Amino acid sequence: MSYRWLAATLIALLAMPSAFAADDVKPAAARLAAERFSLTDSQGRSLRSAGLKGKVVLLDFWATWCTGCKEEMPWFMEFQKKYSARGLTSIGVSLDEDGWTSVRPYLAAHPVNYPVAVADQDFAKRYGFEGALPVTVLIDRAGRIAEVHQGKVNKDAFEAHLQRLLSER
Question: Are 154 and 19 in contact, with CB atoms under 8 Å apart?
Fold first, then answer.
């Protein structure tokens, strides 16, 4: 991890609001198609956006050193358990610079109930990443970006956003 990136992340996080309003989910007509992706998860399985059509996707960009990220992960695990039958698919995407070297031991100590992959900042920028973590992206059932949230989410408000997207057909 570079100190320049860490400093930029901390500065950006301090400038962000800690919660977000209920109107942060874009209206369906204003949503743009999410970039297609193909990643490999920690189990060696392929994660392809093409296979997620019809699902609401919670795409969580995080890192092992990010405190806000680690606070959100249990919430995202709870959401995955609670809403998977209604069509939610959560995916963690680590942006740790040393990749699996940091991520595998972290996942061994802190297992999650959704797939985790590793990517770089260039990949994350295609989904709204601007240099600060955490970033959480909600993709609707049609594969369009409904929300990009910079910073730690407000759990209750974010769950309401998920419920709204899961209710859409």
Answer: yes
The boundaries of the domain holding residue 138 are: 3-167
CA distance 127 to 145: 8
Q: Is beta strand 46-48 parallel, antiparallel or unpaired with respect to 38-40? A: antiparallel
Which residue type sits at 142?
A: A
Q: Pick left, alpha or beta for residue 141 (phi over 0 → left; psi -120 to 50 → alpha; otherwise beta).
A: alpha
Query: In this structure, what CATH number is given to the domain that contains residue 132?
Result: 3.40.30.10
In angstroms, rounded to a whole number, what is the distance separating the alpha carbons of residues 146 and 153? 15
The SS3 call for residue 139 is: strand
- Give me Rg for the CA atoms of the chain: 15
The DSSP call for residue 80 is H
Whether 116 and 92 have beta carbons less than 8 Å apart is answered as: yes
Angle between helices 67-83 and 155-167 (to 10 degrees): 40
45's tokens:
């399985």
Nearby residues of 48 by Cβ (< 8 Å), 6 or more positions away? 36, 37, 38, 39
pLDDT, one tens digit per residue, over 18-40 is: 333 334 899 999 999 999 999 99
| Residue 8 pLDDT > 60 | no
Number of domains in the chain: 1
